[in-house]
Amino acid sequence: MGEKDTKGEVKVKHKANKLKRLNDHESTDAGGDTIRNGKSVKREPEDEDFTAKKKGLKRKRIKDEPQEGSSQSTATPTSKKKSKDHGRGDESDGEAEKKKAKKRTKKAVKKEEGGDHPVSKKPKKTKDEVDEARQLKIKKKEDEEKSRWRWWEEEKYEDGVKWKFLEHKGPNFPPEYQPLPDNVHFYYAGKKVKLSLEAEEVAMFFAQMLDHEYTTKKAFRENFFNDWRKEMSESERLLIQDLDKCNFGEIHAMHKAKVEARKNFTKEEKLALKEANQKIVDEYGFCLLDKHKERIGNFKIEPPGLFRGRGEHPKMGMLKKRIQPEGVIINCSRESHVPLPPAGHRWKEVRHDNTVTWLASWTENIQGSIKYIMLNANSKLKGEKDWEKYEIARKLKTCVDSIRSQYMLDLKSREMRTRQRAVALYFIDKLALRAGNEKEEGESADTVGCCSLRVEHITLHKQLEGNDCVVEFDFLGKDSIRYYNKVPVISKVFKSLSLFLENKQPGDDLFDRLNVTKLNKHLCTLMPGLTAKVFRTYNASITLQQQLKELTNKSDNEPEKLLSYNRANRAVAILCNHQRAPPKTFDQSMANLQAKIDARKEQLSLAKTELKQAKKEAKTKGSSDAKLQTLVERKKSTVKRCEEMVLKMEVQATDREENKQIALGTSKLNYLDPRISVAWSKNMEVPIEKIYNKSLRDKFAWAIDMTEADFVF
DNA sequence: GGGGGAACTTAGCAGCAATTAT
DNA sequence: ATAATTGCTGCTAAGTTCCCCC
After folding, report:
1. Do A457 and A19 meet the contact criterion of CB atoms below 8 Å apart?
2. Does the CB of A274 sit below 7 A from strand B?
3. Model's pTM, two decimal places?
4. Integer distance in angstroms from CA A263 to C1' C1?
5. Residues of A with catalytic roles
6. DSSP track, A652-664
7. Nearby residues of A652 by Cβ (< 8 Å), 6 or more positions away
8. Residues A391-407: pLDDT tens digits?
């Protein structure tokens, strides 16, 4: 095991890295929150009626609406029976809703056919027109629903097979470089220099970014200049030796003017642009997969440009090269219409591998990694995998207790590697840390996860802020996002950590006898399919479920319910350390909202006095006066309306304030079992649209379709 | 085991589109 | 009608995991 020690020595170097983001806000609130949350994570919901679903039984059919004709030859229909034994109320609700919607649409269609509308006048929309538009929307939604591939009702393929038929148009290539017009020049040491096309294109990349702070960074400039010179002709290289003597001013100005001009396009121009884009989407954005048209996630080849990694990336500024068809591998069915390469070009390779999900791939020149063209999140291939992910996390729920007691025992092990593994697992479970693979130095920013933590990333406090045994974490995680947290731990963990720290330098590995592979191998023996990241999924989802239960009441009104949902979501985001830069206009928009609240409050108090007045009048003039009675009623409703508005806005303000530096989207998209949210939405009678936008609804169509109100993660 | 490549998920942000305020 | 604000989408970097080979 000595080999790690050598590695440790090498690593002493990169302690220079200081935490870059959020430095000023952090230590107070983020730390507190996370600890608070860390506690709540561990609480398990009391209800134990969780029933593990067997793998084979997973594909139960939920709705018994007729399937449209798209059903597949290979698929065997599964049981159509819907379990009617519970949740009657909400089920009929859902169905009734649907029928209503259908009826409405039919009416709308008839109306249209009847043609009792005068030809629409441009400026003002009549009520009918608005109504019509709404009907059209509903109709569209239904059509979409109808054409949706309900893959979750079909049998799975045999192991490893991802598709049986795949046909597509290949990737879309970015437009060629447009040379500079004759009146725009590049200057070197004050003299006009006409660059070769290749060098000019790269100069353009740099000129475009001149407004960005990072073009002033040393590493960025050096990397750029280095790569730029590689694109130059012999003579250019001889001439251009110093970036500081380069003047990109005219190119920069031209670019800015172009951007400005685009902003000021006329309606027609904008429309034309939009249509041109749509055409590309229509042509390249879809593929045919097992008889179903599926959307492709990223059908465009990444355009060339200057690489900007996140954080202190050693390769920032390097030239990301233009990809030619000669570098692209196509993957599709042998019997499909193989995509044609752009004229005058050929593909690197065409293969027919149905054990992978990608349609095309190329090797990128910065890291030498492979990039893929893959399907959209709403596709079968992605959806099925996602569903499986949550099923594994739910399986962890059934055995997490025994796994926890196991690592508690392991904390006492006399074997160092077992003990380190136990502590790492304790962190991964309690704090939802990422696994933390080791990274090659100099290839990317210096970031770490659990297993790659170094001595310099933690500080032990026997006592801190009234707590015993506190571990203070301070490191840069994925995307160079700072993780800062002060966590009280059990004394066994604390003692072990002190032991791990003995005789080590700040740059040494904290867990010198552990890496992700070893950890995952161990986890796999505890539960098939268990890896470090499953804990993140599990803890995120279980936290949401438990927080929702704790925070929401059926009697709350909708804004309150939504606030609670967001708060539950937020607890998860804090746990997973999903941060965002505070919006640039945050303070301003907060103040605006407050002003609106104040204004509305004033209106409210006015309405209240008016109501009192009216009541008094009604009393004195006798209650028989119907006019006065209605006046009182009217005033009452005004007061009520105002109160609701104020409440709604105040709730909104709280929500926004709490959300300042927290990104909710990531957990919603990647960590929270959608069935929890769908069940909540049914239970609370909050429409799913309020918590999931269109793309989320598409991505989680499987969950929305199959989940009943009684679902338990 | 461990090094390395392949495949796939997770992540934040820029810019644009949609919505709301003025 | 226009401006401000918010919400989403597209983009692509940065992770994790798996698997093969030595």
Report:
1. no
2. yes
3. 0.79
4. 17
5. 671
6. HHHHHHHTTTB--
7. A559, A593
8. 999 999 999 999 999 99
